[in-house]
Amino acid sequence: MKNGSPLVLAVAASLAAFSPAAAQGGGAAIPAGEGGEIVQASCGSCHGLGNITGAAGYDEAGWRDLFSSMIALPDAQARTVATYLAKNFPAKTARRPTLVAGPEQVKITEWIAPTLGQRVRDPLQARDGAIWWTGMFASLVGRRDPVTGDLKECKLPEGSRPHGIAEDPAGNIWFTGNGNGTVGRVDATTGEVKVYKTEARDPHTPIFMPDGTLFFTAQGARMIGRLNPTTGELKEVPTRGANPYGIKRDSKSTLWIAFNGSAMLASMNPQTMELRYYDLPDPASRVRRLDLTSDDMVWFVNSARGRIGRLNPQTGEVKEWESPSGPDSHPYAIAVVDDIIWYNESNQRPDVLVRFDPRTEQFQSFPIPSGYGIVRNMFV
Fold first, then answer.
1. What is the pLDDT of residues 329-359, one digit of tens each?
2. What number does CATH give the domain 101-379?
C-alpha cells in the first residue's frame, strides 16, 4: 500500500454473501447433469445448496478457485464440477461493483489456509510480524510465520467456533469462542490454550486496553464483557442496542461500539463500563464495524444503507457518504491508515476494497483477487 501501513484482510469463502436466495435454506434443487451428483454430495454435505443457486455465478476458473478453498477434489472431478457449475450458474451482472479509478496503488497477496472450508475470519498481525487468524468452522487459530511464510494451525476446544482475535501485552493470542460462550488465550510460545467461561452465549470481537484488560462484544447476548486476565475477574453488562458488534478505543482509551441490530453507536467508560448512546439519523442504519482517525472522529460502515459515516463525538453530528456501488453494496470491514478510510463492499462480486480520503471526499476502489468471499475484518 503506497505511503501507508499494510492492511491485513481476512476473506472468508462464502458463495452467496447476503443474497436472499442463500438465506432460503439448503432445500434448493440443482439441475441434473454431469457433475450434479458430485455437487450434491460434496457441497451439500457441508452447506445448503441454496448457497450455490443464490450465488453471483462465475466462469469455470472462478468456480474452481472458489470450491478449491473449501474442498480438495481429484483433478478430473474438479474439472467436471467447474464445468457443471459454470454452465448452470454463470456469472451474473447485477452485483458487479462500480469501480472508481484513482492515483493510488495497492498490492494484495493471498494465502489459502491449510484446513479448507474453515471460514477464515478476523485477522491480526502480531508485534513480531506474524499473521494470526481464526478458523471459525474448524475451531482453530492459525499463524503465518513472518520469516518462512509457513502456515500452522492450533486446534481449540471443540465447538469454540472462534470469531475475533487479539494480542495481549505479553504477546499471547486471545480469541472469542462464539460457539460455546468463552474467551480464551493461546500461549504464543507453547500453544497451550486456557479458556474462561462467559455469561454471554456468543462473545464476538475482543480488544485489549493498554493495561492488559480485555473487553469484548457479545452480539446475540447484547452484552459487553470485561476480563482481567491476571485475576480472572469477569464483568458483563447489557446494552440498550441490539447486536453489539465492532469495538475500538480512541486516544483517551474510551471504547466505541458498533451495533448491527440498532441504528446507533455507543461509547463506554472502561473503568465504570457506563455506556453513552448516539442515535443515527436514519433508523434503518445498521453498523457492523468502526474505527477512528487521529482526531478521534468515529468512522463507521452503515452496512444496511450502503454508506460510510462519521460521528463527531463532541457535537453528536453525523455525516454520511454513499459508497460507490450504491445502497446494496453492504460495507462491512473498516480500518484507518494514516487518516485515510479503507473499507470493503461485501455484497459486490468481486468484493471490493475501497479507499476514501476525508480531506478531498474522493473514493478509489480495488477489486480483491479472491473476490468471491467476504472481507469481514481488517487489521492495520
1. 999 999 999 999 999 999 999 999 999 999 9
2. 2.130.10.10
